[in-house]
Amino acid sequence: SSCHQEFSSDGTKHGTLTSPHYPSPYPPNTHCHYEFFGRGKERVRLIFQDFYLYKSADGSIDCTSVDSLQAFVNVDGRLEKVETFCGVDLPKPIMSNGPKLMLEFRGTQSSRYSRGFKISYSFVENFGINTGRQLKEFPCAFVYNSSEAHNGTFASPNSPGPYPRDTECTYFFHGGETEKVHLHFTNFDVEGVLPCQAVSASDYVEFSNYMTEDNRFGIFDHFLMLIILAIPQLHHQLYH
């Protein structure tokens, strides 16, 4: 059995994707391609609702030569594999590095328990970050003002899934004259080695802490800027 589907943000910004015959078992020798086409700054984000592929009981944790779902993104004009999923563990969300993403499903085996998968897809411009106020003039930037909220949470793009490659996000924190910004990391997982900069081919988080004068009001704001940089070759996750 073969299948091919295309999803364009021109048609709808979000929807649901399922394997053939879901929630019934997918047929043996299934081979499907699912292509997503966004526009401009849009990223493709996939959130897994259900995932159950056939896997033999030999205890292998390798996804090669078994039923699997692979994700590909566009890197320098060519498709590059970024994730491979198999078995029954529900994958974390994934996000593209640009407006395009492709999934390839190979289901050579099957069983009466192999119901396949159900995925919610969306074309987003907020990088899956739902807190703060997004600054549209930046590729990826969010501002947090103490005048709007004195505490809260923020996360890396696509949290709790891996952050997309080739992505730089900036977070601005503005406090009042007598306030300080305090960050408490509840989870930190960034790919790289010392000295944690591009020269070592590392993703990194950079902090900048200084005072700026607001010329409109003649007052000083306490200010903290945090930058997350994911170089093209690497991707992992960071969330707070």
From TrEMBL:
Question: Can you say what this protein is called?
Answer: CUB domain-containing protein
In this protein, which residues make up the domain named CUB?
A: 3-124, 140-220
User: Where in this protein does the record put region Disordered?
Assistant: 1-23
Q: Name one Pfam family in it.
A: CUB
Q: Which keywords belong to this entry?
A: Disulfide bond
Q: Name one GO cellular component term.
A: plasma membrane
Residue ranges spanning the membrane: these are none
Q: Which PANTHER family match?
A: CUBILIN
Compositional bias (Polar residues) at which positions? Answer: 1-21
Asked if Cell inner membrane is a keyword of the record, the answer is: no
- Known PROSITE patterns for this protein? CUB
* Keyword set includes Disulfide bond: yes
Q: Which InterPro entries does UniProt cross-reference here?
A: CUB_dom, Non-NMDA_GluR_Accessory, Sperma_CUB_dom_sf
